[in-house]
């Protein structure tokens, strides 16, 4: 196994360097989806002990970029095209409803929070921190469910957060910068629609955004094959 080690600032913990190396290999596709991560092999390849490799794999599992199966080990996350379509069918159903409901629940506090999240998203993209940009993106969408005051819908949506998080990290790293720059504007269009108080407009803005997101995931090579 050969892994490209990115140029990184000096770190105080060796496992963090291993983490960046493995994460980079996963999100760029250097490590194929479904690849088993064997601690001993990775330690030998990276010329480290097994302990920092174990810590790095545990963090990647927390980030949903690695899946661990009982008695089988840890594997790079993989998605089929059908997985992506199913996730986005559910996202459209839940999030379009949340956006429509939010038109009647927008307060100054929520408006400020959503504006701040969009600004943060834009700043991170401008800095080239595409992995970090996933966090304000997801929080923006979660906030709409909080505004809708529907714990049941929020709990249903949160079952999708793990795969959404992994998909967005990989997509953000692989997609073209000009495409990434459209993300803040797409979120602003959703917020503007919510501000208008027009539930249909808010619903349509969300569906349009999620349609583009689904297409971009498939275009960057995710969901290219295999069975989940």
Can you describe this structure?
This protein is mainly alpha-helical. The protein has two domains: 14-76, Orthogonal Bundle (Arc Repressor Mutant, subunit A); 81-219, Four Helix Bundle (Hemerythrin (Met), subunit A), CATH 1.20.120.530. Helices cover 68% and strands 4% of the residues. It is built from eleven helices and three strands, in the order H-E-H-H-E-E-H-H-H-H-H-H-H-H. It has a three-stranded antiparallel β-sheet with strand order 1-3-2. Helix 2 packs across helix 3 and helix 4 packs across helix 6. The model has no long low-confidence stretch (mean pLDDT 89).
For the structure shown, list the relevant keywords.
single chain, 228 residues, mainly alpha, Arc Repressor Mutant, subunit A, Four Helix Bundle (Hemerythrin (Met), subunit A), 2 domains, 11 helices, elongated
Task: Tell me the major beta sheet.
Answer: 3 strands, antiparallel
Shape: elongated
What is the number of strand segments?
A: 3
The CATH homologous superfamily of the largest domain corresponds to GntR ligand-binding domain-like
CATH architecture label name of the largest domain: Up-down Bundle
Please report which band the strand proportion falls in: under 5%, 5-15%, 15-25%, 25-35%, 35-45% or over 45%.
under 5%
Q: Which ranges are low-confidence, i.e. pLDDT below 50, for 5 or more consecutive residues?
A: none
Order of strands, widest sheet: 1-3-2
Domains (count): 2
- What is the CATH C level class of the largest domain, in words? Mainly Alpha
Give the proportion of residues in helices. Answer: 55-70%
Structural class of the secondary elements?
mainly alpha
Task: Enter the CATH topology name of the largest domain.
Answer: Four Helix Bundle (Hemerythrin (Met), subunit A)
- How far the N terminus sits from the C terminus, by CA atoms, comes to 24 Å
Overall pLDDT confidence: 89
Q: What's the SSE pattern? A: HEHHEEHHHHHHHH
Give the C-alpha Rg.
19 Å
Please give the count of helices: 11
């Amino acid at each position: 196994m050969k892994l490209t080690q990115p140029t990184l600032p000096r770190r105080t913990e060796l496992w963090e360097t291993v983490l960046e190396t493995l994460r980079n290999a996963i999100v760029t596709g250097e490590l194929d989806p479904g690849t088993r991560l064997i601690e001993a092999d990775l330690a030998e390849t990276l010329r480290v002990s097994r302990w920092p490799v174990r810590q790095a794999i545990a963090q990647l599992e927390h980030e949903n970029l690695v899946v661990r199966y009982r008695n089988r080990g840890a594997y790079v996350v993989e998605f089929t095209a059908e997985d992506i379509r199913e996730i986005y069918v559910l996202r459209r159903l839940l999030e379009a409803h949340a956006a429509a409901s939010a038109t009647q629940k927008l307060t100054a506090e929520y408006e400020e929070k959503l504006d701040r999240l969009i600004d943060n998203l834009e700043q991170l993209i401008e800095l080239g921190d595409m992995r970090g940009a996933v966090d304000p993106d997801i929080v923006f969408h979660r906030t709409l469910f909080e505004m809708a005051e529907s714990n049941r819908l929020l709990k249903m949506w949160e079952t999708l957060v793990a795969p959404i998080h992994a998909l967005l990290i990989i997509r953000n790293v692989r997609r073209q910068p000009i495409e990434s720059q459209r993300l803040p504007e797409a979120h602003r269009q959703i917020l503007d629609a919510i501000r208008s108080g027009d539930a249909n407009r808010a619903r349509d803005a969300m569906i349009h955004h999620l349609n583009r997101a689904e297409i971009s995931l498939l275009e960057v090579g995710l969901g290219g094959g295999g069975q989940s």
